[in-house]
Amino acid sequence: MAALGEHVSRVRALYKAILKLHRGLPLQMQALGDQYVKEEFCRHKEANKQEVDIFMTEWTKYYVTLAKQLGPKRKFKTVGEHLSPELLDNFNNEQVGQLKELLEAATTPGSASGAEGKS
């Protein structure tokens, strides 16, 4: 049972760290990112161990990448990165649909992210 408590603690810590990091984003990007993170973490509450391992690894990579991009030594003024074709090939239809929805929300004027967009 202690392992479950430790796992829940790790998930909460990552979740809170990502939301805190989002404070460094432009306000409209922060709103879109926060909403997406909340939905994804909620969606994976009942995931199996293999899915959880992948989920935590990928969200940790996201955190590290964004922390570098928003950090004091940032070299670029852009935030985000392009997904490789190899990574996209591993997505299922539902995930591709989520990406399309996210792209539309990020690029539609008047949406949660405004006209700033995210790549």
Automatic annotation (TrEMBL):
Coiled coil: none annotated. Transmembrane segments: none annotated. It is found in: Mitochondrion matrix. Its main location: mitochondrion. InterPro entries: SDHAF3/Sdh7 (IPR008381). It holds the Pfam family Complex1_LYR_2. GO terms for biological process: mitochondrial respiratory chain complex II assembly. Keywords: Chaperone, Mitochondrion, Transit peptide. GO terms for cellular component: mitochondrial matrix. Interacts with the iron-sulfur protein subunit within the SDH catalytic dimer. Belongs to the complex I LYR family. SDHAF3 subfamily. Plays an essential role in the assembly of succinate dehydrogenase (SDH), an enzyme complex (also referred to as respiratory complex II) that is a component of both the tricarboxylic acid (TCA) cycle and the mitochondrial electron transport chain, and which couples the oxidation of succinate to fumarate with the reduction of ubiquinone (coenzyme Q) to ubiquinol. Promotes maturation of the iron-sulfur protein subunit of the SDH catalytic dimer, protecting it from the deleterious effects of oxidants. May act together with SDHAF1. This is Succinate dehydrogenase assembly factor 3. It comes from Batillaria attramentaria. The lineage of its organism: Eukaryota, Metazoa, Spiralia, Lophotrochozoa, Mollusca.
